[in-house]
Amino acid sequence: MAEARWYVVHTYSGYENKVKANLEKTIANRHLEEEILEVRIPMQDVAEYKNGSRKMVQKKMFPGYVMVNMILNDDTWFIVRNTRGVTGFVGPDGKAVPLTEDEMRPYGVRPKNIEMDYKVGDTVMVVEGAWEGTTGMVQAVNPSKETVTINVELFGRETPVEITFLEIKKL
After folding, report:
1. 36-40 sheet: strands from edge to edge
2. Measured on CA atoms in the order 61, 63, 69, 73, is the torsion positive or negative?
3. Which of 69, 97, 141, 143 has its CA 20 to 30 A from that of 2?
């Protein structure tokens, strides 16, 4: 059986939520939960200033686009492509091109085969992100969030920092 991948679907601007709802309804009606796994609209928190007060609101990262995690075959392609509000898949000549794991990482999608062999007391090195090159001892492990807490030296003090499993390696 083929593996599910993430694809980007172009929609009419402003129709993202309607496309998501229509796709989810079609998936449920046709019992395609095993082939079309998730429909997502990437959102980000943005600070808005109105009447002198700051308010955090969620905005679409890519207006006019929806991401779909699915096993691509003729049936799933047809269903997604013919959903009201969808203009096509993103790719050359409208052909669906899957996104890589690296392209999906900023949107909260992580690979399923993450190595979790960290325990309290392990020494780790941060290999990417803001703390790259820093070493520290694991103080806490949170498997559900896929993070560890390490102490780093900041302004001469030990400061706890939460780092994802993907950003560290064991020493």
Report:
1. 36-40, 65-70, 5-11, 86-89
2. negative
3. 143
Considering 62, 83, 107, which residue would you say is the last residue of a domain?
107
pLDDT beyond 90 at 18:
yes
Q: What DSSP letter does each residue of the chain carry, written as one string? A: -PPPEEEEEEE-TT-HHHHHHHHHHHHHHTT-TTTEEEEE--EEEEEEEETTEEEEEEEESSTTEEEEEE--SHHHHHHHHTSTTEEEESSGGG---PPPHHHHGGGT---S-------TT-EEEE-SSTTTT-EEEEEEEETTTTEEEEEEEETTEEEEEEEEGGGEEE-
The residue range of the domain holding 103 is 5-107
Q: What is the CATH number of the domain that holds 155?
A: 2.30.30.30
**How many of the other CB atoms lie within 10 Å of CB of 107?**
15
97-105 average pLDDT score: 82
Task: Answer yes or no: do 62 and 133 share one domain.
Answer: no
pLDDT at 70 over 90: yes
Q: Place 126 in a pLDDT band, splitting at 50, 70 and 90.
A: confident
Q: Are residues 164 and 91 in the same domain?
A: no
pTM: 0.62
